[in-house]
Every structure is written in C-alpha cells, then in structure tokens.
C-alpha cells in the first residue's frame, strides 16, 4: 500500500492559467504582426490579403492533416467551393461582405461534408489519391459550368458594397486587408478553442491510434467527418475572402496546384500547431514573392532549395524552432509529424 | 468491332507507356517507402539527355536510350547520397516536402540551361512510320512501346521474384533490421533499388516521350497522373501497376472516344470507384 | 439466474485454419477468471472476437442477456465490455490525466463537444483524480506517456478501462513486459478493482494468476482444454501435454 | 548609334517645345506575364518583344526615361494577378500596366485601373469580353474569334463541306469553336460534330478515331500553344488521317514557331490562320526579328507573344508621348484610339470604339524554309480584320 499512499490528490492544475496566457500571447502576436504588416508594407496589402486567404486554407488543412492525421492534396476543392459560392452570390446581388463570408463558410462546410464522406472510406495513399480525384472533379465541374462560374475565363464583375456601409474595397486594399486580418484572428481564436476542446483531444487521439479511440468507446468516423466540416468552413471562408478581395474567381482556386502548394506550406511550417500553419504560409509566400520579384524567370530553383534546406535542417518544420526555444509549448502540439 | 479493336490498341499502348514511367515510382513507394514526387524530374532529365544525344549529336535512338539511362543514374547518385538518404524512414509529408523541393530545383535549372521549348527525341525511321495492322494504321513506335512495357514487366518480375537480389530486396523491405542482422547489406540494397527505380524512370521518360513530350514543366505536369496510377495499382506491386495502367488507360481512352467532353470525369470517377472498392489499390499490401 | 456475460460456440477461422474452435464460457458478476495457454493458443484472438475487433465465423457473445455479436467494437464498449491491450496502445504525447479525462468525457457523451474546455473541467476532474489515485498514477499524471515507466503505462491501460465503468473487463496480459520489481503495483491495482466487476485476465505470470483468479480456463490450439480451480490446473494431464508439447515444438523449431 | 541620335532628337525637340521639366524623370511600366512555369516560353517572348522595341526605339520618350518592371505570374491566378498589379501601381508607382497572358488575370486587373489612373495594354489575353470591363484597356494581340473567323470561308473554298471541330475545353477553345462554326456555316459548310477535349489530354488517338468515324472531310482544331499540340499533330499523322486526305485547319496557336521544330515534318502542310508569322516578309519584321532574337537568345524560341509585346510597347510609348510623362490614363488611352502604324505583322490600327487592334489575318501553310527549318508561310491575306466578338456586341 505504501506506493499508493504517497499522494492521492492532483495538484491544482497549474497549466490552466499559463496555457491561457500562452494562447493570449500567441494571438496578440498575430494581431501585432498583422498590424505591423499594415504599416510596414502599405503598398503590398493585396499580397498580404492573399496571404491571409491562403493562410485560412492552410489552417484548414492543418485541422485534418495536422490534428487528425488525414493527409489531403485536394483541400482547394473546399476553398474553391467557398470562393465560387461567394462569387456567384455576389454577382447575383448579395454584396454585403460579411454575408458573403458566411455563404463561403456554408458552401465550404457542405463541400467538406461531401469530401469527408468519400475520403474517409480509404486510408493512407489511397486516401491521398481520393483527395486528388475529388479536387480534379471539382475543377472539371467548375470548368464545365461556365454559365455560372465563367469557366476558364474566370468569374468577373463582383461588385461589393462597402463594409458596414462605410469602408470601400478599393485599389489600396486597406479595407480588404483589415477585414481579412480580423477574420483570421476570429477564426484563429475559435480554432484554438476547438483544438483545446474535448473534441480536439479526441482528434489528436484518432491521429495517433484510432483503434485505441475505438476501445475507449468513441466512434472515429463521425469525429473525423465533423472535423472535415469545420475544416471546410474555414477553407470556404478563405475562398470567400479571396473572392471578395480579388473581385474575380478563377479556376486556380479549385486546382490541385493550390492544394499541393498549401500542403507544402503547412509541412514547411510544421504540422499540428495552428501557429505552424500561419508561419509556413507567411514564409513560403513571402519568400516566393521576394525571389520571384528579384528574378521572375528562375526563382523556382530558390524555392526548391528552401524546401530542401528546411527538411535537412528542421525536419519538424519551421515552427519547431519556436519549440526549441520554448519547450513548454510542445505540450499544446499534436502528435509528431 | 473495328472501332473497339482500334480503341483497345490505343488504350494498350497508352497504358504501357504509363506503366514504363510509373513502375519505378511504384518500386520506390512500395519497396523503399519513399514518396518520391521527383520521379518525373528524373524521367525528364533522361529526356533531355536523350534529346541531346539523338538530336544534337545525331547518335541514334538506341544510343540515346542507353546514355540517358546511364546518365540519369549517375546524376542521381549524389542526390541519393546527400538528399534521399536523409528521408528514408521519415514521415511521408516530409518526403513530399523534400522531393517537391528537388522537383522545383530541377525544373528551374532545366529551364535556365535548356530554355522552355519542347525537346524532341528523333525516332529512327523504322519507328516513325505508320504500320498497317490490317484494320488501321498505327505508329510503329506505339508497337515498340507495348513491347518495351511487356519486357519491363517480365524482367522486373524475374528480378524481384527469382534472383538473389530480389530475395534480399524483399527481406529488406519486410524487416530492414532483421535483414541487416542476417548479413544483407541494406544500404547497398537501397542504393541499388534506388538506381533501378531511377533507371526505369529514365527509360520511361525517353520511350514515353511520344506520349508525354519533354519540356521543363514535365516534372510537375504529370506528377498527379503518376501518383494516381501507382496508388490505384498498389504501391510496390508489378502486377498491380500493370493492371492499373491498363484499366486507367482503357478508361481514359474509351472515355475520350465515347464522350470526349467528359473525359476527365470518367478518369477520376473511375479512380474514386476503384479506390473505394480496393482501398489499398489493386494489389497493395496491408500496412 | 442468467450470467452477466456468456460466449457460446465462438469460432473463427482464417481460410481453412481455425484459430478459435467452439469456445463457450460464462462469467457471473464479480468473477475473477484467468485465461491461460501456451503461445499461439488463440488467447488474444479470443479477446478480439469478444470485443468485436474481429468478427467470428460462428457463435454468439451475450452480455447481460443481450446478444451483442452483431455489434461493432465501439458499441460493445458502450455496453460495458471493455478491454486492455497486450502491447500498450497509448498516446505518447498525452499525459495520463488527459487519457483518463478523455475517456470519462467520452463515457459521459461529452467527448465530441466543440465548446467547453478539456482541461480543468471540474465536473470530471474529481473522478479522474480518484481513478488515477486508485492506480497510483497521481505522481505522473501530468507527464507525457512516453516519459513514464512501462509499468505505469500498463497501469494507465487499466485506468482507461476503469474510466469506462465496465461491467466486464478483459485484461490482455496486464503484467507483460513489466519488470518484476513493478508487478506488485499491478497486483495492488488488480486487488482494488470494483468487486462487482467481472474480470477475465490473460496472463503468463502464474504467481499472479494464482493470487488473482478464482477460476482458470486453459486454451490450447483455439480450444478450451481445461476449466476449473487454480489449484487443479498443474495436475491436469491435458494441460501438461499442451504446455510441454509446445515447448518441445519450440525447441525443434529453434 | 541610331538610338542615341533619336534620344538627342527627342531631347532637342522637347527643349524647343519647352514642355519638359528640366530634370529627366522616369516613367515606369509594369509587365505581368508567365516568366516561369509551364508557360515560361510565352513570358520570355513578352520580354523579348519589349526589349526589342526598346532597343530599336530608345529607352526614353520625349526625355522621359522608360523603366520596365517584370512580375511573374506563372499560371492563370486572378488573386495573384491583382496583388501584383496593385503592388506595381501602389508601391512601384508604375503609370502603365502591360502584358497579361491569361484572360482571368486581365479581368482581375480591370477593376483597379480607374482608381489607379493607369491604362492596361494587353499583350496577349485573347477573350473579347475583357475590353468591355474597363475603358482603360487597350489590346495589341488578337482574339481567338478574330484569328479563327477567316478559316470558315477558307475551308469552304477548299471544297470542304463537313467538318469536325476539336477544341480544348476551356474559354478560348470554346470561343474558337463558336467563331469557326459561325463563319463556316455562314459560308455553307456544316459542323457535323463538336468535340471538346480536356486540357490535360495526353493521348489524342481516340479523338482522331472519332474524327475518322464521323465521316468529316476536315478537322478544325484549337489547342493552346505548348506540349499538347505536339501530341495532337502526331496523332493526326499516325492514325492515318493525313493519308486519308482529311484536311486540318486551325488558328495559328497550334503551329507557333517555337513549337514547329518539335512538331517536325508531321506539321508540313497544316493550314492555320493567324495575325503574325515570324517569316512575314517586310523590312519592319526583319528589324523586329533581328532585335527580338537577340533579346530572347535563340531564333527557335521566338513566337507570336513577342509581337504583341512589341506593338504593346509602341502603344505605351505613344501614350507617354501624348501625356508628356504625366499620369493621365484617360488622356493616354484617348490618344491611341485610331492610332495606326506598320507593325512587324503588317499594317495595324487601334479601333477607336473597342480599343482592340485591327490587323491582317493571314492564311499560312507549314513548309520548309530556305534553310530547311519549318516556317509558317503566308499564302493569303485577309486585310483589316476587326474582332467579330466585339463587333457583334
């Protein structure tokens, strides 16, 4: 009995306050970085807005790949569903930006439901191939339905009403950027709650060992499907933001290329941490932008070299630098990549 | 009837071309557990070498194939030593990151040195003539591709199932530590199978160039097709790859004949259907 | 009176090879049963059949008078048929506290809630604490699983099972791989199991078996060859034959 | 030498006119094009056209130095297009935007132009509708309908009554199909079947089989320049359609000069209509080809986007001249309405109503040139063609 007698009580959870503090600092850092971007690069706001839209897409992949272990090369299907839904709604007279974001989220969630239902039938490589097939079918469908989507010429002519009746979406892109930043912060906070919720914990468990989760009496499929729907909503909002800020929706928004790029950004940043998704997006797109401006003809080599260098130096992704500096943060991360 | 035969022969040729290019990737993914998205980049490098040898030096098609295969393998050796060896056993997504990085680099470098134009590999006159096969004419090189595909399939089957190297390879794949303990030099086995896979990519790149023309973007343009074919067949299975190539080739070809407007729908719907029925591909091994 | 748990004629064959042959046994409430047998006797297969990881070729599994053979593994868990794993299946990056909390929340139907905090949930933390205390895991409750001793991981397996409030608990070699210095802790934990719970334990450590079990079933080549008191096992000729035979075979293979 | 002389002349002229501020200022032009990726060749041609023009006409207009900034947009991507355009305008302070290979990319830029007070001179993007999106767009390339329409009559003139159309299944392909069908059926022919092929088609044999089964006398094809044209032309030869006497008509995208070496002898005899052939016989074109070849680094890479860029720069230079280096988009665009000049492709003008280029369309046949290389030889001219897509609106 003496082994058990040592202590029978858990110490008062010390991690609760510090975890909250850590998240608060992280979110504050995103806001500060976003506002700093606004003042430091006032002439690149369209690019920064695009980074935010893609950042939402990468976050959405992180939810299912980083937290649930379901790799996907077809996430742009959900992004594009949101973009086209918002675009078509806008062309047909729904011009209020917040409503369009909501429409994008709903369309993305619906697409996520469909995609999850199909993809969760398989595992591993086959699952990856299903995701590719689905995004290609979405792409074909968008191309075929040119009466609604504009096909390969793109869906143009999105005229938005000013945000809250006051702020125009204009050339300088200030409204679009700040709107996007606010959206990103809200989504990020919500996702922080989601991944810290019992549901988020369940997902992490499924990623590591679905059989164990089953032996705990929890069904795996509905949990994953739910995450697909959430992920779809996030990706759909990203798509809607892209549609709003660009005022054109192109077939590239439902392409395999976008899906693959986004997955690369996620792995670059580090799987299973929401920060990693954002870091990967900013670094990848920023790097690409800079090198392609320096040499528009041969920048691809540089991007390739960056990817190789990251794998060799930081196999856990860029956000693992932060982990090395702040060991305690490792705890909020999901399983190893 | 004539039409069906005609479609069938086209489908077979296309499927065999796909097979030759993809089988190397199937080996890397199934036996070495490396998701090598740079596979197409190696096929492309071989295409450039072959184009240089056959078109610029005028040395003939046979020479071009041999030099392309050897040259590509030689080029791949430093890559294997310094890059690929670092990702054996890594997670699939890390491998994806690394091999996409390699692909980007290869595309950028090719574009820089050789320019963005299409490169052709001139065929010998014997292969460039249309041949009358009774009910229609067919290009001789298509017959050549079919023959190559069958030879590659049979040869690989023999190497893997019937030779000492094949036994070592399969042992290493099943349990590298055990094979090591039994005296198999697993490093060597990996290096040789990597070279084999690259050699097949190179061969496929050159022979299949009539279907998939050589240009710098080749490495990315067909990446999805390769990945899909390998997965549908089941990574690591020769028979699976043959069947996947033939089935997908047939679906693709007949789809494009019967309803060309919806060709892609057919192809990807077939992929989804197959994967739903065979979640590990036709002959995939349980993980 | 009907038994709490019963299997009837459970059979499983892969291809032509039968790995479980017509196994029938029953357990009343509070039963302490040990299932033993030589390697390859089909013990883990039996657990997989009972808990629904494998579908039987024939036979029935009955819990509380209800036929659960057609139900999946998850539904059986929810009905109170719970197992541990021979090789621990735990989440290496999570803490014992998180494992048990997740399990309790799941049992309460709150595990897939999006809102509400996972950590510091006052409704469940009391129960989590008492389960961890029962198994002596308080000290390591907030360390990651991969950092704690294997013996403690085995205890955590049992803790998770207990958190499901099982009616029938199947322990698949709870002491396997545990250094002998740690087996007393496992034994203590077993002693503290709720008295009404029916427990079936697979185990090789015969000392543990004799101290724990009131009844022993011996499985060989997928068949029950003995059922009775622990004190009678060693003397049974069929059991001797099965064990010694398997050793003889093992030697000839090596 | 001549450019120095021109510069001097311009400077003297400017001094006399007294309209130039004393300090030499710089007018920036932002060029967006696919300089890397699958369409890198077309982007390189943009660059070659621009550099050729500046080499021949000097790097300044009326004392205003012209600086060109290139931005890479590898594939159709409107969001990135808008971001690049916005950055060029806001950060780099360009007065003129040029380039743009794909239609959706152009559509993403048009909403910005009014606020940016910058004209967009399109070097390629070939969908009619772009011009209606903003009054500040001028185009110096062509539209698919413009290059295709003459083929309808040509086909009928050559005794073809029944045609199968086979086009890539995307915007320009559909435009080509419609334009050909309209022109061909107006001339009395009949399109017996319209096939749309997915863009990523690799093996065209089944398409050829379908053409053969349809009993048509000719096939009309549209595919975007690049690797797929190779497969298509090969399949046309190898499946025996050519021997069977089935004729082949296409807009010139299919036989762009940089693809011809790869197409090889299989391309001999193909009939295409287009606005420009590198082999066009005129002193202007000789000068252009010489300069552009130098800029691109090899004669076999030169193709039609270069001439669009060359004339685009001409238009931009005229705009700079008209506004005297000041930023006034409307004035700049007004100044080039009705502008006519002799381009390397022949006589051209900017239509005052549509702001789209009016040009000759040539019927060309692929033949072996004097040095044994394949060329598009112009054999018939359809003078002063406007864009039928815009004219009908």
Automatic annotation (TrEMBL), chain A:
Database matches in Pfam families: BPD_transp_2
GO cellular component labels: plasma membrane
GO MF annotation list: branched-chain amino acid transmembrane transporter activity
InterPro entries: ABC_transp_permease (IPR001851), LivM-like (IPR043428)
Keywords: Cell membrane, Membrane, Transmembrane, Transmembrane helix
Localization terms from the record: Cell membrane
Membrane-crossing segments per the record: 20-41, 47-69, 76-94, 100-120, 176-199, 219-242, 263-287, 299-326
Topology of this chain in the membrane: Multi-pass membrane protein
Protein name: Amino acid/amide ABC transporter membrane protein 2 (HAAT family)
TrEMBL record, chain B:
Recorded GO MF terms: transmembrane transporter activity
Assigned keywords, A-Z: Amino-acid transport, Cell membrane, Membrane, Transmembrane, Transmembrane helix, Transport
Entry GO CC: plasma membrane
InterPro entries for this protein: ABC_transp_permease, BCAA_transport_permease
GO biological process: amino acid transport
Entry's transmembrane regions: 6-27, 34-54, 60-84, 96-114, 134-160, 188-212, 224-250, 262-283
Family according to the record: Belongs to the binding-protein-dependent transport system permease family. LivHM subfamily.
Record protein name field: Amino acid/amide ABC transporter membrane protein 1 (HAAT family)
Organism: Microvirga subterranea
Automatic annotation (TrEMBL), chain C:
Record bears the keyword ATP-binding: yes
Record keyword Signal present: no
Keyword terms: ATP-binding, Nucleotide-binding, Transport
Gene3D superfamilies: P-loop containing nucleotide triphosphate hydrolases
Cellular component, GO, one term: plasma membrane
SUPFAM superfamilies named in the record: P-loop containing nucleoside triphosphate hydrolases
SMART domains reported for this sequence: AAA
Superkingdom as given in the UniProt entry: Bacteria
Record CDD domains: ABC_Mj1267_LivG_branched
ABC transporter domain segment(s): 5-246
GO molecular function: ATP binding; ATP hydrolysis activity
Family: Belongs to the ABC transporter superfamily.
Protein name per Swiss-Prot or TrEMBL: Amino acid/amide ABC transporter ATP-binding protein 1 (HAAT family)
From TrEMBL, chain D:
Signal sequence bounds: 1-24
Entry coiled-coil feature ranges: none
Keywords per UniProt: Amino-acid transport, Signal, Transport
Domain Leucine-binding protein positions: 26-369
Top-level taxon of origin: Bacteria
Signal in keyword set: yes
One Gene Ontology term from the biological process aspect of the record: amino acid transport
Electron transport recorded as keyword: no
Pfam families membership: Peripla_BP_6
PANTHER family: LEUCINE-SPECIFIC-BINDING PROTEIN (PTHR30483), PERIPLASMIC BINDING PROTEIN OF ABC TRANSPORTER FOR NATURAL AMINO ACIDS (PTHR30483:SF6)
Similarity-based family: Belongs to the leucine-binding protein family.
Protein name: Amino acid/amide ABC transporter substrate-binding protein (HAAT family)
Classification lineage: Bacteria, Pseudomonadati, Pseudomonadota, Alphaproteobacteria, Hyphomicrobiales
